[in-house]
Structure formats: structure tokens, C-alpha cells
């Protein structure tokens, strides 16, 4: 078990620079303080965002202070506080993201550019043939300082009580607990929502998990006298972990929404505004924007909490867990809530219009599915014809646009069970150093997972696909399916026989994932994006890490591949440890290759960047 502990500990450390990796200063007996100050500058180079060349796309900063105090042998008080944000809105370059459909382009298939860090050229009332160049832009600065004290400043504030006989431990406060060991894709590490605003899916898990107010109890069943009963069936060192989490969090992300009445910018790591297109004809859907409203459970629900349990034990020479979770979904289901007709403006700007007219969800579906979508699929739609459908015939009259209102509903429950197993394969020494690999496996089964449909039936009995399938009554656009996920992986300290000067091993971790959704045809991977879910999804990850120059030059590569969408992403880090124990310069490259909006990697295909950062840790 010692080898197993060493290997799994190495994996956790290599996964990224975590708060635990800092140096600490001892202030007095049983009281330590640690922290770090970090500033990064990310240069974006994706040609669709910068048009060639490069622009400053992100300037993340972090100030962290952590403390640990042990006033009694059985009591530990811990704190971890963050001040962080992004200077991009003040000092960044002109990044552009895909915006609303360009009504002046053939078939409405082109999209207006959306400037993420400056105002657009304006949104005039007309005329139609010559819309203003790049009319959409934002000066959104919500990422400048993530200042919510409870949600974003407190990362840990907890007290841990331990029984003198080590029968149990009880931790109360705000903190995180990690389940599972998979990299890049989470199967069992689902106790906490993720913050995707600064690094998307390739961030360090220790920094992306969102802490919650909770109670965690750990019970050593063997010390309670139940060890013999478990050993009778081959189980050793049984322990039970119980979680009570009254505070709710969802995944944090920002959609780069160009709609003037609801404009938001997440900058470099903002999720793209979805392509709006009629699946059948291929025509874009012009004059349509989106207003998004979050519908969440109560932030604190003592009667409707997240509940979790994990049974940990040793069996067959390895470590196993059985997991159960009753929580809330972290990503939304999209539901039609109505629309607003903007009379007097073709570019969805209610603040620059003659009048705005609210519509209910039934009327919205009737107009869009009964007239607008059929017209766009007629074969030769024109901007003037689309205006006529919206009730604005053009000419000397006013122009119109429509902002469809969608609820992002997070109120669905998550019901999941799972298991994991990790074993040092001592029977299989390999390589010139006869190192044994560590095998890992995870499994999860989620019941009644909600999905938006990619194909559905309108109130008129017609079948629609893609973006249009969201503009129907939620009773016809939402369904539920069970989902099964597997992961098998191997960790190995690699010595290369042809590398004569190799002084330390190359840590190597390979993982293969399969996600199965029975009866998963005609579902969306993640609304509001129109990409269909593959009933069987396969992914692979590869993690390589090696220290050169006596440990002073650390290189790490994490790769992710999506087999169904033939997409890949990579994160490469180089740490320069030449400046003592406190200063940590780093160069980090993040790159995605995927079709836009296709799968999880497709949502990040515009996030390519090179980040230069400097951290001072103590």
C-alpha cells in the first residue's frame, strides 16, 4: 500500500500548482500561515478571435492567504481566502467572438462579430441593406474583481474535530472534498461545481472546485469494532464518509452574449454565443437574439441539501470506494419563457427602439414555428421577407427584431451512484527499473439525467431540429435519460531505455473514458448549443510530467481527445524553478482543435492562448 500511496500522491501533485504546494511560515506553536501572489498575462492567438497576430486576452491575478491553527490535539482550524480577477477589461486587446446572424449575408449564414472588450459601431434603426460594420460590442467588467465574499473570497473556513481514539473526524465549515482521480473529465469528482471562467476544463482541479458550506463526517468502522465482520468477506480498513451540504452552487461560466438587452462578456474563456440555424435548410435565423435568466434552487436549502456518502476500503490488494450522491445539476436545461419584439430596431436593441412588445411562450412558438422557420426553409428567404413575417414590412416603416427569452433551469436533481478501484500492480514490474504500474478504474451511473431534445414536434405537429427545437414548449423540448460512465487508467513512472542521460522518471498517466446514454438519440449534448449527443462517447487523456536540470525545469503536458468529434485539446506547462523557494515563473500553452460547438472541446475552440505568469509563494 505504500507504493500505491506514493503513486496516487504524485498524481495529485502533478495535476497542477495547488494551494497545498505553497511554502508555509510558522508563526507560533501550532499556527502556520501560507500564501501566494500570482499575476498572469495570456496572449490569445486564435485567428477567429484576433483576425491574425495576437492580442492580450486575459490578465488573471490571484492573492491567496491560508492559515492553519491547532489549538488542541483534536481540533484544527483552517482558512483559505482568495482575491482574484482579470484586468482584461482595462488592459486587454480587442478580442471578437461570433455574434448574431448577419442578415445581410447569403442565407444569413455569416455572423456579426462581437467585440468582447469595446463598444461596437452602433445599432442604428436601419436601413436593412447596409448594417453597421461590427455593430455589437461589450464593456462588461464583471470579471475584473471576483468580490463576492461568500462565493469567491472564502475558499476554506472550517473546523475539524478528531476523536482521541481516531474513531471519527468531523469537519464543519466551508471547504471542498475531492472524489475520484480522473484528469480533464469528471466521473466521480462531482461533489462540487466547477468555476470555468478562468481556465475552462483544463484548469487545476484544486482551483476550479467551488467550495461550499458543509459538514463532512469520517468514521473508521474497523476502530468501532466492525473490522472482523468486514474481513470475513475480504474487506480491510473500512471507512465511511458522510456529506451534508446545504449550500448550492452551479458551474460558473459566462456566455459571450451579444444581445444588447442582455450583453455579457466572459472574455477569452467565455462560452460562445450559439449558432442560430435551421437544421433542415441550413439557413441562419436572423433578427433573433436571446435573453437568458438563471433559475436556481435556493442558495441555502437546509431541507433540500446535497447528500453524499462514500464507503472506502481495501480489497484484493487495492483501494476501493462505493459512492452515492443526491445533489443538483451543475449545468442548465434550456426552457422557452417567451419573447420580446423590438419594434424600430433590426439589431435587437430595445434601448434604441420605438417600442418593445412582450410575447408569451405560446405566441412565441406559434410565430416562430408556424411562420418564421418555414419561411427561412423556403429556399430563397430575404431579409425583407423575414421582416414581413415579424410584422415589420420595411420600406418606409420601422424594422423589427426579436429577443427570445430562455430560462436556464438548474433545479433538476442529480442522482448518482458509482465506484472506484486503484491498485499497484506489483505482479507486473516493467521497464529497465522494473517499476510497477498503478491501475485505476471509475464507474458512475446517473439516474434520470435531464436533456434538451435535438429533434422535437411543434404545436403544429411539425418536426424541427437544432436551434429551432429549443423554441417549443418545455414539455416537448426536455426529457430524461439514465447515463453510464466508465474510466480505466494507468499511472507509470517511465524510464526510457534509449535516453542515456535520464536522471528521473517521466510520470505518465493514460485514461480511457466511455459514456453511454441508452436511448440517447435525438438529444442535445448541452443546450443552447445545437450539437447532438452521441449515445456512446469515447475520450482519452494523456498526462506527461518530467523535471529537467536537477528539478529546476518542470515540463508537463496534458492532452484530451474526443473520438466521436475528432477533437483534441492540450495544455503544456513549463515551470522555471531557478529562483529559490518563493518565485515561480511559468509559461502555459492552451490549444483546442475542434469544430465549433461540437462537444465539450468544441466549446473551447476559440480559447487558444499562451500565458506568462509569475507567482510569489510563502
From TrEMBL:
Keywords: Signal. Residues 1-23 form the signal peptide. It holds the Pfam family DUF1302. InterPro entries: DUF1302. It comes from the Bacteria. This is DUF1302 family protein.
Amino acid at each position: 500500500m505504500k507504493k500505491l500511496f506514493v503513486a496516487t500522491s504524485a498524481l495529485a501533485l502533478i495535476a497542477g500548482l495547488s494551494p497545498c504546494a505553497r511554502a508555509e511560515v510558522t508563526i507560533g506553536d501550532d499556527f502556520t500561515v501560507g500564501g501566494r501572489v500570482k499575476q498572469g498575462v495570456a496572449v490569445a492567438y486564435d485567428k477567429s478571435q484576433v483576425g491574425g497576430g495576437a492580442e492580450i486576452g486575459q490578465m488573471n491575478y490571484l492573492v491567496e492567504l491560508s492559515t492553519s491553527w491547532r489549538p488542541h490535539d483534536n481540533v484544527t482550524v483552517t482558512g483559505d481566502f482568495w482575491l482574484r480577477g482579470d484586468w482584461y477589461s482595462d488592459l486587454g486587446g480587442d478580442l471578437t467572438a461570433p455574434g448574431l446572424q448577419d442578415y445581410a449575408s447569403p442565407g444569413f449564414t455569416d455572423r456579426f462579430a462581437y467585440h468582447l472588450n469595446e463598444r461596437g459601431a452602433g445599432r442604428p434603426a436601419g436601413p436593412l441593406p447596409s448594417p453597421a460594420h461590427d455593430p455589437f460590442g461589450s464593456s462588461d467588467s464583471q470579471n475584473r474583481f471576483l468580490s463576492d465574499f461568500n462565493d469567491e473570497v472564502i475558499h476554506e473556513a472550517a473546523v475539524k474535530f478528531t476523536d482521541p481514539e481516531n474513531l471519527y473526524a468531523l469537519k464543519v465549515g466551508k471547504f471542498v472534498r475531492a472524489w475520484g482521480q480522473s484528469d480533464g473529465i469528471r466521473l466521480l469528482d462531482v461533489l462540487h461545481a466547477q468555476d470555468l471562467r478562468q481556465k475552462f476544463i483544463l484548469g487545476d482541479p484544486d482551483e476550479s472546485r467551488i467550495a461550499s458550506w458543509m459538514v463532512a463526517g469520517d468514521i473508521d468502522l474497523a476502530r468501532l469494532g466492525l473490522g472482523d465482520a468486514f474481513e470475513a468477506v475480504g474487506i480491510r480498513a473500512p471507512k465511511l464518509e458522510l456529506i451534508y451540504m446545504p449550500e448550492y452552487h452551479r458551474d460558473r461560466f459566462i456566455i459571450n452574449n451579444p444581445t444588447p438587452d442582455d450583453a455579457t462578456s466572459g472574455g477569452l474563456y467565455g462560452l460562445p454565443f450559439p449558432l442560430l440555424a435551421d437544421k433542415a435548410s441550413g439557413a441562419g435565423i436572423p433578427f433573433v437574439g436571446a435573453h437568458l435568466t438563471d433559475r436556481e434552487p435556493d442558495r441555502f436549502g437546509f431541507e433540500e441539501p446535497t447528500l453524499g456518502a462514500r464507503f472506502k476500503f481495501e480489497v484484493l490488494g487495492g483501494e476501493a470506494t462505493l459512492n452515492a450522491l443526491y445533489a443538483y445539476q451543475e449545468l442548465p436545461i434550456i426552457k422557452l419563457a417567451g419573447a420580446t419584439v423590438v419594434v424600430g430596431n433590426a439589431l435587437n436593441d430595445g434601448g434604441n427602439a420605438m417600442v418593445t412588445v412582450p410575447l408569451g411562450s405560446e405566441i412565441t412558438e406559434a410565430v416562430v414555428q408556424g411562420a418564421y422557420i418555414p419561411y427561412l426553409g423556403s429556399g430563397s428567404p430575404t431579409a425583407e421577407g423575414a421582416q414581413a413575417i415579424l410584422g415589420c414590412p420595411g420600406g418606409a416603416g420601422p424594422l423589427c427584431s426579436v429577443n427570445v427569452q430562455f430560462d436556464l433551469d438548474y433545479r433538476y436533481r442529480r442522482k448518482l451512484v458509482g465506484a472506484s478501484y486503484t491498485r499497484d500492480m506489483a505482479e507486473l514490474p516493467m521497464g529497465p527499473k522494473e517499476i510497477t504500474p498503478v491501475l485505476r478504474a471509475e464507474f458512475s451511473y446517473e439516474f434520470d439525467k435531464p436533456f434538451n431534445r435535438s429533434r422535437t414536434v411543434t404545436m403544429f405537429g411539425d418536426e424541427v431540429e437544432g436551434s429551432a427545437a429549443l423554441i417549443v414548449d418545455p414539455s416537448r423540448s426536455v426529457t430524461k435519460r439514465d447515463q453510464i460512465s466508465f474510466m480505466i487508467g494507468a499511472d507509470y513512472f517511465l524510464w526510457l531505455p534509449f535516453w542515456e542521460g535520464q536522471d528521473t522518471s517521466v510520470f505518465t498517466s493514460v485514461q480511457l473514458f466511455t459514456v453511454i446514454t441508452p436511448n440517447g438519440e435525438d438529444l442535445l449534448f448541452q443546450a443552447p448549443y445545437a450539437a447532438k449527443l452521441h449515445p456512446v462517447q469515447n475520450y482519452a487523456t494523456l498526462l506527461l510530467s518530467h523535471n529537467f536540470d536537477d528539478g529546476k525545469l518542470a515540463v508537463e503536458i496534458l492532452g484530451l481527445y474526443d473520438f466521436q468529434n475528432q477533437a483534441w485539446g492540450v495544455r503544456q506547462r513549463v515551470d522555471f524553478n531557478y529562483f529559490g523557494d518563493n518565485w515561480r515563473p511559468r509559461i502555459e500553452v492552451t490549444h483546442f482543435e475542434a469544430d465549433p460547438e461540437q462537444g465539450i472541446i468544441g466549446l473551447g475552440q476559440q480559447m487558444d492562448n499562451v500565458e506568462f505568469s509569475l507567482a510569489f509563494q510563502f
